[in-house]
Lipoprotein (Candidatus Liberibacter solanacearum), 130 residues
Amino acid sequence: MDIKKLGLISTVAMLSVTVSLGGCDILKSPEELKTEKIARLNRIHEEKRSKFREAQAKQNEAERKRDELSDRLDKEYGSVLNYQDNEEYNKRCKEFREANEEADKAFGEFCKSVDKVSPYRPQHEFDTRN
């Protein structure tokens, strides 16, 4: 056998193995390809959405804690100017600042998760952009 026949035989063998293992989309209809693509995108969307929900829950908890500390400070001390030198007030303000930073960080994570979810939002089945 010459080298050309060996190359052709090995190419045909590789293609037949690829097709038999399902790695080639030649034998699938466009409808099957589209349904597989939609299913894959929906699965990715659900994964991203679960992360989105977790980030949203963290954000809500951090904001609730921040607001609770803020309300407590307002009730106990009223005017800031009267208590600026008070150690207890400064300690609670520090707690509030930390809670505020945590809420801002949680909001940033929430925004990142929204950005990751948006390209995978399911579209209408008759949408022709795909």
